[in-house]
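Ligand-bound model needed. D-ribose.
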Amino acid sequence: MIYIGSDHAGYRLKREIIAFLESMGLPYTEYGCTDGSSFDYPNAAEDTCKALLEGEKDDFAILVCGTGIGISIAANKIKGIRAALVTDAFTAEMAKLHNNANCICMGERVTGAGVAISAVKKYMETDFEGGRHERRVNQIMALE
Ligand code: RB5
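Prediction:
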């Protein structure tokens, strides 16, 4: 399951990503802004990430706000969330490969829909490398 949420400033990019998920037949649940009206990004992050934490092991979340910054900061306050602000396929790949991020965040005012969708695809097709990165990820989680 993919949990996808946004505030109002990420609403249009969220719709583009949802259209991609639907075209691929991928299951998703939507949180946050659903009609373009004002929705505070901390609440969108909280609703989306709490649902993710109740899901299955390989589930992940996608969060979108205007820049991706606020919603990633909020998501990272939630125990169990490793949210990565990504801007393209490379940063999305590294977010999974090295950081085992369970949440990728993007900014509608930063990243166009085509690049955002390529980032989602790359994240989904990449596996966590483990090894020395597992030690470091465990160190991150020990900071909680
Ligand atoms: C909303 O105007 C904007 O501040 C928000 O979407 C985000 O960019 C915050 O980091």
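Residues 11-23 form the longest helix (13 residues).
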